[in-house]
Amino acid sequence: MKWSLLAIFSVAILTLHPAVEARSEAPSGPSKTSPRHKARPPASAPVRSAVPVDARASGEAEARLIDIYRLIGRGQTREALQAAERLVADYPDFQLAQLVYGDLLSSRMRPVTRLGDVPDTAAQAGAETLADLREESRRRLRALRERPPAGSIPSNFLALSPRTRHAIAIDTSRSRLYLFENRPQQGLQLVADYYISVGKLGVDKAAEGDQRTPLGVYYITSNLDPRTLKDFYGAGALPINYPNPLDQLRGKTGSGIWLHGTPPGQFARAPQASDGCIVLANTDLDQIIRTVEVRATPVVIARQLHWAAPQAIRADSKSFEDTLQAWRAAKSSGDVQRVLAFYAPEFRNYKRSLREWMPVLTQELQAARGREIELKDLSYLRWTDSADTMVTTFGEVLAGARTGPIKRQYWVRRGAQWKIFFEGVIG
Fold first, then answer.
1. Which of 122, 194, 327, 369 is the 20 to 30 Å CA partner of 105?
2. Do 364 and 259 reside in the same domain of the chain?
């Protein structure tokens, strides 16, 4: 039996990080279960027996596929074939699994030299689909082989309030979404990661209809009831706030960017197949929907995530922390001119310019009457491309008060200084 290129391709599996065997851990805390989607226990290791459809776990299908690759790499083709047969029985719409199963069946009759080794006539007819499936396989393997360093987090997550229970980071170069839980003692912990699809023309969305996925720091704004959506969106949809204030400052247009599922009969889509949305397998999206909090969950979408130790990330943010506290002290003083020194000329409060927003600021300072301002439940995230940007969220609470408005600010670095170019009340 000759496997040639497929065997060489599969050998990479043998070098996978040990964590791949138990890649998908269930986020703790209360879950949010919709009537349409029952809670399903997560899988902690590749499953070797048939699983009822209503018990399928988030990430389980991929883990089983990787286990099949591993068996092939070890030359255990009979066991691989049996595992593939069970996998496609449980997930008949998983096209990549079907392709591998077909190769395993073909290998019993003839040499197989590559993934999707079909007759030339069939290959020509389905050339685009075959190319997409091969790329999907490559992306899944790369993301699972090149695991984040233990204990590291994306460098965007400088500080998250304990009230921010979860965070999402997306590495589009690896077609991967990483889900984090913000735990009281340990801070951000990676609890699951999933294969995703992005825009047909890639990333860095700039205009309506350009079929690209935006890059930046966003927040989940709502959870759309799947009963109100077309079947195309699968298990549901989580819209994000594209275009955010930075996008708007740069003149970017468009709307309707969601994290959503796949239509009936399609387990996953090609790495670049959407009109700009982030698309996941329905089982994976279902896990996310039941886990994250609307309006409080940040979503970082990057070409490539940069991972670092939490201590190093916090140390790198000290200059901004000092500026933020200086802004708080200025506002506590009640001095309008002192406060205005922190705002950029292009500042916007939604549709209001700095001049138009001035009466609001003046009124806030007068109402405070010089009382100290506290920034409660403070979070700040960093985005760096052609400019260095900070996105802060906090409760602005006057001394002696129990509550205050929740605000979000966008800061941009100008030389050695940070300036606010957006501020608004949210929630």
1. 194
2. no
